[in-house]
Amino acid sequence: MTKKLRIKPAATADAVITYTVLIAVSFLFLFPCLWLVLASFSGSGSIYSFSGFFPGSFSLSSFGALFTDTAMYNYPKWFMNTLFIAVMSCIIGSVLVLLTAYVMSRFKFKGRKALMRGTLVLGMYPSFMGMIAVYLLMTQFGMVNTHWGLILIYSAGAPMGYMVQKGFFDTIPYAVDEAARIDGASSLTVFLRINLPLSLPIIVYTSLSAFTWPWSDFILPKLLLKQKDLYTVAVGLMSLGETEFARFAAGSVFIGVPIVILYFCLSKFLVSGLTAGAVKG
Amino acid sequence: MLSAIKHGNRKVLLSMFLMGLGQLLYGQIAKGIIFLLIQAMGLWFFIGFGAKAIYGFFSLGALVADPSVGLAGDNSVVMLITGIFAFIMLGLYIACYISNVKGAYNTQLREGCGLPPARFITELKDMADGGFHKSALFLPVIGVCVFNILPIVYMILIAFTDYGGDIVPPALVSWTGLSSFARIISLGQFAPTFSKILQWNALWAIMSTAINYMCGLGLALLLNKPCVKGKTFWRAFPVLAYAVPGFITLIGFKFMFSYGGPINQMITEAGGRAVGFLDLDAKWTARLIGLLVNAWIAIPSSMLLATGILSNMDNSLYESATIDGAGAWKRFKSITLPFVLFATMPVLITQFIGNFNNFGIFYFLRGGLYIDGYFLASDTDLLINWLYNLSIDNNYYSIGAAISLIIFAITSAVALAVYMLSPSYRQEEMFK
Q: Which of 235-274 (A) contact B at CB < 8 A?
């Protein structure tokens, strides 16, 4: 008797349910994004001209207005400001975080555990309460209304979030370090030549998160940048009203798309970065 | 340090008197000059600025500005912050001083063993190698001190002053001890609002953390099922939501639920009346929308996290459980859940705290509303939104600082206790 390969009814039902749920979930995640993208191509700017979720007519005028009509809302300038701040904070901040995390993972010095507990507690203080003080400090340093002031704050604050990176470094075996040390390598060499090349996932993860934080932060720029020309995109888009919905959508799509592409290209690294930070404290 | 005082020779004592002098006498020219420079800079700083700043920290100013005669008075708030800054510099200076005396004493000990004083180049190399951790942490620690610790200390100190209300510069602020805390308890306006918001805040933190965590885990398990084809494709949708910057999502959802938004348009076209989802009287719908929007933002990262953890899991446990006849639910309850919970305890704490202090959600969805029965807050506001309304929008600086101190004490005590009890902290060494 030949045994025919038959799909069991229970398994079929299971697969149907699974796919139904998956499609529903995917739709829920996709729809708001799709809505914004469609809105950015709408013919007229106001949200009131839409019929339901979809614009009445389509055109590229919102994108055109975004870059040409800069008298009130200078989007190209905001975009360049944001890019500059995010890139600089990303470079400086990533170096500082990686150094801190590496030291906290590899060196057993006095006061290390106290430092770890201390940063955990400090991280819990509502950050914008400190903003009042940061603002005063910046007025004292003469750095209000400058982009470098923001870069300084973002980079200096970055080492507070070293836990994820520390978790990753913890997973690199010590044996490699010790072998190199016996061969006479210094701490710096061990870090730069041995551990860093092994840490590509976490470097990618760190720089991506160090980049997206200033890219989408609004509290700090809102506090420190008082001139419209100095705004970042987040602050600028927030200053748009309901009648400028299409412009908001177009501006969002324009800064959202590069980030989304980056995330997709690097999603493999993201998972390993997130996981490493989770497993260890 | 103590033994250096007891047993130090003449050169060490000279170093105590004037930084770098001992090093110079030992022939460590470069090091001596650096310490001398630090001493000079320290003196210059404290005579020119530091002493006044520290005095100002205690007095908080005595001179009230009088614009009619062009008199620029003291700014108490600035004096407080420069005072703290001067204290940090003083701490740094003392650290340099101690390392100077210790260094001189070490050279004395080396001399006792018949060794020559360490050469500058050697010491620099040593700093990059044996003292790598100190050199590497130097910049991050300075940055964190100035931009994280200083502001927190400042806000904590503000809680003990009368800063706020009418007392903002140019008026002089003064130290008032515990009176802000006393005002919170005794004045009728603060206490009821505080307790109402605290209850909602606790409910919010528990609900949102649970929803995000369980849905993220559920989604990851769903994607992990063997019958699902094209996992990368399905995973792309949550990653899309994860990648969109948070403020865009929040403003977008606000538009979606607004009066002119698409949902209300569809309702009115169907003959219904527009619903004020986020209106003044929309207590529970607004809260529910907040929870859902937060879930939309946070589930993807939970899912990615759970996916990573699940891929590390040992599958043999599952197989033996299946052979023993355990059903799907039983396997989930007894194997998956404990494993994932154990692995993600620290993240769970961070997520809980993050949700407890989730500022963005209700600031964007429903910011700036004040509702009867609440003092400068609405019924969806979390404590952190209330703090923002109090201190940034309404100048209640000292009250706000006092409340934030209370919240800070509660959250940090809870989190620290859970963190230190969690296996991932105690058994840190086990995984290495």
A: 237-238, 242, 245, 248-249, 252, 255-256, 259-260, 262-264, 267, 270-272, 274
For A51, the 3-state DSSP assignment is strand
For residues B291 and A49, which has the higher predicted lDDT (pLDDT)?
A: B291
> Can you tell me whether residue B75 is helix, strand or coil?
coil
In order of their start, the domains of chain B are 2-177 (no CATH), 187-431 (1.10.3720.10)
Query: Mind listing the domains of chain A with CATH numbers?
Result: 9-64 (no CATH), 70-279 (1.10.3720.10)
Contact A50 B265 (CB under 8 A): yes
8 Å CB contact of A267 and B241: no
The tens digit of pLDDT for each residue in A183-203 reads: 888 888 888 888 888 888 888
Give the ipTM of the model, two decimals please. Answer: 0.79
Work out how many CB contacts closer than 8 A connect A with B: 280
Residue B77 vs residues A140, B164, B357: alpha-carbon distances, Å: 11, 11, 26
pLDDT in tens, B180-219: 888 888 877 788 888 889 899 999 999 999 999 999 999 9
Kindly provide the b/e burial profile for residues B28-49, where b requires at least 16 CB atoms within 10 angstroms of the residue's own CB.
Answer: beebbebbbebbeebeebbeee
**Alpha helices (runs of H) in chain A, residue ranges in sequence order:** 9-40, 61-68, 75-106, 112-122, 127-141, 147-157, 163-171, 174-182, 187-189, 200-216, 219-224, 233-238, 245-265, 267-279
Global pTM?
Answer: 0.80
Q: What is the pLDDT of residues A66-90, one digit of tens each?
A: 888 777 788 889 999 999 999 999 9
